[in-house]
Amino acid sequence: MSKELRGIVKAWEAKVKKSQAAAKNRANIIFSTMSVAHVDDDEIHNPGEIYHVEKVFSNGNVYTGQWADNCPNGHGKYLWVDGCMYVGDWCKGKAMGKGKFSWPSGATYEGQFKNGYMDGEGSYTGSSTDTYRGTWVMNMKHGTGSKNYANGDYYAGAWRRGQPDGQGRYVWNNGNQYIGHWRHGRMNGNGTMIWANGNRYDGSWEDGLPKGNGTFRWADGSFYVGVWSKDEQSGTYYPSSSQMVNFDWDPEEVFLDLRDCRIGIGEKILVFPSQKMVNWPCEGESLSKQVGRRTPKENDARPRRASIDGRLSNGGGYSLGSESDLSSDVVSGYSGSGRELDEGSGAKEVDASTGSRPHITIKPTKRQGITISKGHKNYELMLNLQLGIRHAIGRPAPATSLDLKDTAFDPKEKIWTRFPPEGSKHTPPHQSCEFKWKDYCPLVFRTLRKLFKVDPADYMISICGNDALRELSSPGKSGSFFYLTHDDKYMIKTMKKSEVKVLKRMLPAYYNHIRTFENTLVTKFFGLHCVKMTGPAQKKVRFVIMGNLFCTEYSIHRRFDLKGSSHGRLTEKAESEIDSTTTLKDLDLNFIFRLQKSWFEEFRRQVDRDCDFLEQERIMDYSLLVGIHFREISQTGEPLSTEASVSNAWTPVVNREQDSEGATPRLSRADLDILFDPTR
């Protein structure tokens, strides 16, 4: 290194240290990223050759380190004129791999980078002593991590999009702590609040406050059991054996005590490393694209798919290419239900040659089905169904263990109940016709609902509330009819007698599978019932209640029913006719799903377990349901894309009608054979 350049670098490093030390006493001034004016090299280097450079750019920025194809490649240090600095690994002009980024304020991030983003394992230390250690996805805390707040608070657990979300533990500086579930940075779900004085609350939470069933316990052993909400509380007090004084306590005091339990506000990052990255004119990139690739024909209008980490593929369609769900949320399951896979996926679609993407329009989501109102042919059936569910759920039952006896699974295990219009000793009067109600294996399904963490009151309100059910417009191929509850949580499917026999036969194995694998994607079954109408016809309607996979906090913009086959697996609809309720098939799927390796391995293992279970039960006609949510949609209804760098990566070629402008691209038969090859 020349003496002159060495002096410049040292001067800049001194300036960085000086600005960091003085940051707490002055405002942080951030200039926008300037374009790079390259310094001409005396030597001529071959494309792809890595060599060491020392460059001072016309805008005042300085880079020293490894260089190739007219941009940083390898290990190097970049100093910005505003005092920011990055030291670490580079790939094609982007921070990629291990590195350290420091701000003029004194804040630092040290860990993994991906395309300039803080992505992977890393530690952030703020200027106000805020620290976070854990996983990141595209500049956001996402995954598992721990954070020490400047005010002394501490959180360790799951994160999503920069906020506590999932299971976690938060400890306040006054000694109070909460252990339980979080959602969007607030206490939500089941959790326990323990105060420093020994008192505690165990129960349900919503939006940071107790909501639903819960128990408040004092340090002396007394406790209060009741139903909680901000506006009203009701319950029963149970004194401890040592308590001799009269009880005088208002449950509202719990909400007053929670005023001191505010979630800390972390330090905000004003500018991210990805925003500081320079758009380098990498010369070797255009040359490397031509190596090992056929020359495109003039009429080859197929776009190239680029994932969020810069991987490029030929052919039409889109790539779900982030290791996060920051661009798209994906949910999947078998046969209409399953657990959300709402972490670890993303969407990306870019035409690398033209900057545009294939035409796809996301229409506003709409509610499925027709409301069953008075006069509908199935109105009485709906009333009978709701009356039967209300009776079955409200019927007193002793607390049971999860270890059920074989007699509970007996196919003959059922309860018949008669519902006369005038009512009876066990049934209320109603305005429908007389009918009989049958519960199949009631103890098993009651325990299954417990395993699925379904609250009986919420279950009853969803199905039997004041709102009517909705009937889907057309039955499935099996001839069954489908009904949805008003809140979309549950789907009711009519069944043939033979189908009921199959479900009862496999019920013991199903129950054990659910108990063993909490994250199974197999359909959730909540109840199996039958309504027998009176009269000459003596009509019987058998039905099963299932969980609705697509009932999520996110709108589902595209849904797919995947069987792993190409025969007859194409939806004959134009793109303009496809909306959020259209069920697409295997050959309609133009997305590539990419997950973090650990998530992918777990997902694959669970799919293998579920398929083994279905195979053992001799079930062969099943499918995987996938729902896609686009987080960002333009005013014209098109999914928005973010910048992606490109690189060579093989993916299946997609065939497309050359003379049909805007035609939907499809996977070729040869590529489908590769994708569906079980040996791969």
Number of strands: 35
Task: Indicate the mean pLDDT.
Answer: 74
Q: Tell me the overall shape.
A: globular
Largest sheet: 17 strands, antiparallel
Low-confidence runs: 23-41, 284-331, 335-358, 641-680
Count of helical stretches:
10
Radius of gyration: 30 Å
Distance between the termini: 51 Å
Strand percentage lies at 25-35%
Helicity range: 10-25%
Could you write a compact summary of the structure shown?
With 680 residues, the chain is α+β, with helices and mostly antiparallel strands. Helix content is 18%, strand content 30%. It has ten helices and 35 strands.
What's the topology here?
Blueprint: H1 3-21, E1 51-56, E2 62-68, E3 71-79, E4 85-91, E5 94-102, E6 108-114, E7 117-125, E8 131-137, E9 140-148, E10 154-160, E11 163-171, E12 177-183, E13 186-194, E14 200-206, E15 209-217, E16 223-228, E17 234-238, H2 252-257, H3 273-276, H4 283-290, E18 305-306, E19 312-313, E20 318-320, E21 328-334, E22 370-371, H5 379-394, E23 414-419, E24 435-440, H6 442-451, H7 456-464, E25 470-471, E26 482-484, E27 490-495, H8 497-516, E28 525-533, E29 540-547, E30 558-562, E31 583-584, E32 591-593, H9 597-616, E33 624-630, E34 654-655, E35 666-667, H10 669-675
Parallel strand pairs: 20-32, 30-31
Antiparallel strand pairs: 1-2, 2-3, 3-4, 4-5, 5-6, 6-7, 7-8, 8-9, 9-10, 10-11, 11-12, 12-13, 13-14, 14-15, 15-16, 16-17, 18-19, 21-33, 22-25, 23-24, 24-28, 25-26, 26-27, 27-29, 28-29, 30-33, 34-35
Helix pairs in contact: 5-7
